[in-house]
Structures are given as structure tokens and as C-alpha cells.
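User: Structure please.
Assistant: Input sequence and predicted structure:
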Amino acid sequence: VQLVESGGGAVQAGGSLRLSCVVSGFTFSSNGMSWVRQATGKGLEWVSSIYSDGSNTYYADSVKGRLTISRDNAKNTLYLQMNSLGSEDTAVYYCQKGDGSRGQGTQVTVSS
């Protein structure tokens, strides 16, 4: 199982980023997926989840209306579109399989 996140970076408050997670080693289209994040010195925080077929999505209250999860099962890729970013969104973002497997993460840093 391999999950590789990309797309993070440094952005000013109010800006946008699009994270991607390319997976391999398992049947992506049969698995619900999630994004989680971890800020420095804090625990892991669930951000968003999506059904295996993309029919249902769920969001933490803190990101609802600003972040959008999506997937392309033909490309084995999970996405997180991040808009109206604030300093509270600064964290390492991980894509996560249902059994808890995660990638190495991608750093998002939002400056005010």
C-alpha cells in the first residue's frame, strides 16, 4: 500500500491550494478515503471523508464551505481543494485509507 501526497506549500491568508494523493497497492475505487491533518504540537485532526464512489462527502465544521474533497477513481487519486485558507489551516496534511494507512504528508503553511 502506498499513498503519496503532494500540492502543499506556503500561501497567504485567503489563498488557495489543491492537494493530491496518488495511491497504489490496493483497490482505490473500493475504499472510502479521508484527509487528516496535524499541526505542530497537536494531535491528528480529521478534516474530510469521501465514499468509495464519491457519492457522499463529510467535513469537519472547521473546514466546511472552504475545503472540498473529491476523487478520480480512474486515476487512483484523491484531492482536497482548499480555499479561503487561514493560519488555523497550517498543518501537515495526510490522505488516509479506511484502515488508517497514511502517506508521508504534505506541509501547508498559511501566513497572515
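The longest strand covers residues 17-24.
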